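ARCHIVE CARD
CATEGORY: sequence design from structure
SOURCE FIELD: tokenized fold
FIELD CONTENT:
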């Protein structure tokens, strides 16, 4: 996603990280590199100069907080400024106890119908009951496409193949879904050119019939800075509450699209990152920038640390960080990795690890962890408390009980001992250092 911008920003940061000392000329050089990377990604010139001006001023005037080096503080300032450029962290909340009507807007070719089905799947996964109304009467095959895609997630679609009156279809669709206890109804509308008066008139009429709780504007990320004008044209017709940017996986102008959309004041709610039905994600400026800079998904790590604190008792955390853990603690760590979205997710979100670990290695390790869970479950309470008790005959019994060969049990014991030794050696310093670098320690 946005590979050019990612490469440019990371190369600029490398200069700071690898430098022996930080002075004014180095900060100005970093500023120029950042300017180049953002301008090449089609970010508005005014915004670029504002960011780099803030970066220079803050880097030269601010004193790093205790425990954070000057280099790390400059990285943190850049992270803050880029996140600010992309909007706020506010999250839209669907109202419980009522039907939330969501109007999907956008010009032709923005990927509106595809995004409607992707959003239906995402919201269904989040536990909402979702229905869809297909009111795009302009593009042949739009209703068929919508039904085919929504079928995969068992989302019901209402549409009228022969009817060309979109507002009437919306009215009938809302009546059809009345009293069926749906939480959200997505309304897919027609898309033409933004200047076409009849499209905007149609949007006004649909807006009156639907009385939507939220209007989502879908914008093609490949148009870059033009996002601003497009959002403005629609906003005058139906107040846009949120923006979805598509095709960010293939666009050199993605940075411009994100920045321009954020500049409209409407919140960027979701981004499309690929062709598959799962390639739509909730947009968070801080998470996005963290991944761009190779600092990992900072918020995801913070969430994980919070969960470790709330779900793991203090004694356990002390034992783990001091290298005195037993097999139950090791099992707890495996369970946490699974809850956090698997090893791949953790490594992708971990500062410095992003993109470094090969796909097949991660897959192998994930499969191994899955086996280990069964093996640990086959141990007695005493064996979990003190794995040193496990001798050859116990290995045989555990292997039989778990359904895995003896060498897998031995592999687990070896991994447990290695993990324990590593924790003992670092005394938790590695995690503390990592959190300090992110300004969280």
């Amino acid at each position: 996603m946005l590979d050019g911008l990612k490469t440019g920003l990371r190369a600029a940061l490398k200069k700071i990280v690898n430098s022996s000392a930080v002075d004014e000329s180095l900060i100005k050089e970093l500023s120029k590199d950042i300017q180049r990377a953002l301008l090449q990604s089609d970010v508005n010139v005014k915004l670029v100069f504002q960011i780099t001006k803030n970066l220079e001023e803050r880097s030269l005037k601010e004193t790093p907080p205790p425990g954070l080096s000057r280099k790390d503080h400059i990285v943190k300032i850049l992270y803050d400024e880029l996140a600010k450029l992309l909007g706020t962290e506010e999250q839209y909340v669907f109202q419980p106890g009522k039907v939330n009507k969501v109007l999907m807007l956008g010009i032709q070719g923005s990927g509106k119908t595809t995004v409607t089905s992707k959003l239906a799947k995402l919201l269904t996964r989040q536990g909402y009951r979702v229905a869809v109304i297909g009111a795009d009467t302009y593009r042949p095959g739009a209703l068929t496409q919508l039904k085919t895609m929504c079928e995969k997630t068992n989302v019901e679609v209402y549409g009228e193949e022969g009817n060309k009156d979109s507002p009437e279809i919306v009215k009938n669709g809302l009546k059809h879904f009345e009293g069926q206890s749906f939480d959200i109804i997505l309304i897919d509308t027609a898309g033409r050119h933004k200047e076409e008066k009849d499209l905007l008139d149609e949007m006004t009429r649909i807006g009156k019939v639907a009385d939507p709780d939220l209007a989502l504007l879908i914008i093609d990320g490949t148009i870059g800075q033009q996002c601003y004008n497009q959002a403005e044209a629609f906003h005058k017709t139906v107040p846009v509450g949120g923006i979805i940017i598509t095709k960010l996986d293939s666009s050199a102008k993605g940075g411009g699209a994100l920045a321009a959309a954020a500049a409209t004041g409407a919140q960027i709610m979701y981004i499309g990152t690929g062709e598959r039905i799962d390639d739509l994600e909730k947009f968070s400026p801080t998470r996005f920038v963290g991944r761009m800079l190779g600092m990992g998904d900072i918020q995801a790590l913070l969430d994980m640390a919070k969960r470790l604190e709330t779900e793991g008792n203090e004694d356990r955390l002390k034992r783990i960080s001091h290298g005195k853990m037993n097999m139950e603690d090791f099992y707890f760590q495996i369970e946490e990795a699974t809850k956090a979205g698997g090893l791949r997710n953790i490594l992708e979100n971990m500062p410095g690890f992003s993109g470094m670990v090969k796909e097949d290695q991660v897959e192998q390790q994930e499969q191994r962890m899955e086996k280990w869970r069964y093996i640990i479950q086959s141990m007695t309470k005493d064996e979990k408390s003190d794995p040193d008790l496990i001798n050859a005959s116990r290995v045989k019994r555990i292997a039989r009980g778990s359904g895995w060969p003896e060498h897998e049990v031995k592999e687990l014991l070896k991994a447990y001992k290695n993990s324990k030794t590593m924790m003992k050696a670092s005394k938790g310093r590695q995690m503390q250092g990592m959190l300090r670098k992110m300004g969280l320690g």
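CARD ANNOTATION: The first strand starts at residue 100 and ends at 105. Residues 137 and 162 are 9 Å apart (CA to CA).
SHELF: design records, drawer C
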